[in-house]
Design a protein that fits this description.
The complex is a heterodimer of chains A (252) and B (226). Chain A is an alpha/beta fold and 252 residues long. Helices cover 38% and strands 23% of the residues of chain A. Chain A has a six-stranded mixed beta sheet with strand order 6-7-8-3-9-10, with helices on both faces. In chain A, a hairpin with a 2-residue loop joins strand 1 and strand 2. Chain A starts with 5 loop residues before the first strand and ends in a 5-residue tail after the last helix. The model of chain A has no long low-confidence stretch (mean pLDDT 92). Chain B contains ten helices and no strands. In chain B, helix 8 runs antiparallel to helix 10 and helix 9 packs antiparallel against helix 10. The C terminus of chain B is likely disordered. Chain B is an all-alpha fold and 226 residues long. Chain B has a single domain, classed as MetI-like (MetI-like fold, Orthogonal Bundle), CATH 1.10.3720.10. Classes of the chains: A alpha/beta (252), B mainly alpha (226).
């Protein structure tokens, strides 16, 4: 096995006295699709932000492709180019069109010539099925379309791994499907992904590993079938029961 | 009556001359003030604690003291510390510094109104903090600021009248001259008032057009009700 793309050991974060998560170890291998589940306020989102250094962890180390990115003097901006991030509330740049959103990183971070950036951006928009919306501003797009543009924006940087922070939680139910569909396609293209979501159907179908987090710790992790059908811990069982009750059970 | 009319016609070039100086004062004050204001606003929002303190001190001092006092300190006071500026330069500098303090506050409000998430999104694709400010925050903040900032050219235009007190040949100075010669202060100053009013009206239209032109399609937060 090669070294993991993204690896963290002993990662801890607290705000004041409030422990967000404690002593987390995680390793994401090439082609992994890992879904992190767990109750809200468990530190899942903060964990993702710590992994691409948007939030500084209090302790612990993180490696990207074998290089320690938490080492002093390592450029954060350099790291983030290689780790794509998709946010719950899309966070598209409001003043730029869909195309402009996808192009910005290409022209200002990777310094591609405009024409080349444009071509690449269009092909990324095409990948999420929105080439025909290239000229639209975020305010003129539906939530689902905005999130797909956000995915294209992250993909344009050719990331080694994509982090998804509850990408469908802010969407109306009828718009969730299109975003999950794009993510499914990415999975088929062997994109390495780390996804925080409550979409159990997606987790079960697409993930190769599920991590159940609660109160800032990893309670249990394993293959979807194992974890969904034979959870080892009572807490995992309780959570899964609650979430299926809430979101409905998807039988395949 | 014909004498008066004759003089009136002859006054027009003098008047226009003064008007030109007034517009110059406004434009330079506005531009210098914009540079200073933007720097102070960015320093206040994103600066280190010391930078922030310096920016706050600048803003509070120039907003908290009368413009006239500032002008006199610079024109009459600076020579005392070895800096002698011409009348025009003193007026430019005072108006620029004064306007900068106000513009800083408008700009700070607009920068803060752009959600923090925008910065996070910028950073997430690998933009540095500075690049995120430049390519993500400012393009939005500068649009958001237009409605409140529109007051500044108007206020500044009227504020330039203080330059009269250090004998800068602006609209007011010329008006005083004409009023003294015609013995018609009411007519003259009414004319001056009308000129100011017309320019303010024009500035208003320009601002509105600018706001419309730069509006981000689909984003309604900055536009007021029709």
């Amino acid at each position: 096995m090669d070294q993991p793309i993204l690896k963290a050991t002993g990662l801890s974060k607290k705000y004041g006295d409030n422990v967000v998560f404690h002593n987390i170890d995680i390793a994401v291998e090439q082609g992994d699709i890992i879904v992190i589940i767990g109750p809200s306020g468990t530190g899942k989102s903060t964990l993702l932000r710590c992994l691409n250094l948007l939030t500084k962890a209090d302790s612990g180390k993180i490696w990207l492709d074998g290089t320690e990115i938490t080492a002093p003097g390592h450029s954060e901006d350099e790291v983030r180019q290689h780790i794509g991030m998709v946010f719950q509330n899309f966070l598209l740049f409001n003043h730029l069109t869909a195309l402009g959103n996808v192009m910005l990183g290409l022209t200002k971070v990777r310094h591609l010539p405009r024409e080349q950036a444009r071509e690449k951006a269009l092909s990324e928009l095409n990948r999420v099925g929105l080439a025909d919306r290239a000229g639209h501003y975020p305010g003129q797009l539906s939530g689902g379309q905005q999130q797909r543009v956000a995915i294209a924006r992250a993909l344009a940087m050719d990331p080694r791994v994509m982090l998804f922070d509850e990408p469908t939680s802010a969407l109306d139910p009828e718009l969730i499907g299109e975003v999950l569909e794009v993510m499914r396609q990415l999975a088929m293209q062997k994109m390495t992904m780390l996804v925080v979501t409550h979409e159990m159907g997606f987790a079960r179908e697409v993930a190769n590993r599920i991590i159940f987090m609660e109160k800032g710790s990893i309670v249990e992790e394993g293959a979807p079938n194992e974890l969904f059908l034979r959870p080892k811990f009572e807490r995992t069982r309780e959570f899964l029961w609650k979430i299926t009750e809430l979101y409905g059970h998807k039988k395949e | 009556m014909s004498d008066w009319l004759d003089f009136f016609w002859r006054s027009i070039p003098v008047f226009l001359n003064g008007l030109w100086v007034t517009l110059e004062l406004t434009a330079v004050g506005l531009i210098v003030g914009f540079g200073l204001g933007l720097a102070a606003a960015l320093g206040r929002v994103y600066g280190s604690p010391w930078v922030r303190r310096i920016c706050i001190a600048y803003i509070e001092i120039f907003r908290g003291t009368p413009l006239l006092v500032q002008l006199f300190l610079i024109y009459y006071g600076f020579p005392g510390i070895g800096i002698t500026l011409s009348r025009m330069m003193s007026a430019y500098l005072t108006l620029g510094l004064n306007s900068g303090a106000y513009q800083a506050e408008y700009l700070r409000g607009a920068i803060m109104a752009v959600s923090e998430g925008q910065m996070m999104a910028g950073r997430s694709i690998g933009l540095s903090r500075l690049a995120s400010i430049r390519y993500v925050i400012l393009p939005q903040a500068l649009r958001l600021v237009i409605p409140s900032w529109s007051n500044e050219p108007i206020l500044l235009l009227k504020s330039t009248a203080v330059a009269f007190l250090i004998a800068v040949p602006d609209l007011m100075t010329k008006a005083k001259l004409i009023a003294a010669r015609t013995y018609d202060p009411i007519g003259t100053y009414l004319a001056v008032a009308v000129v100011y009013l017309v320019i303010v009206g024009l500035l208003n239209e320009v601002m509105k057009a600018l706001e419309r032109r730069l509006r981000i399609p689909g984003l309604e937060i900055e536009s007021h009700k029709p």
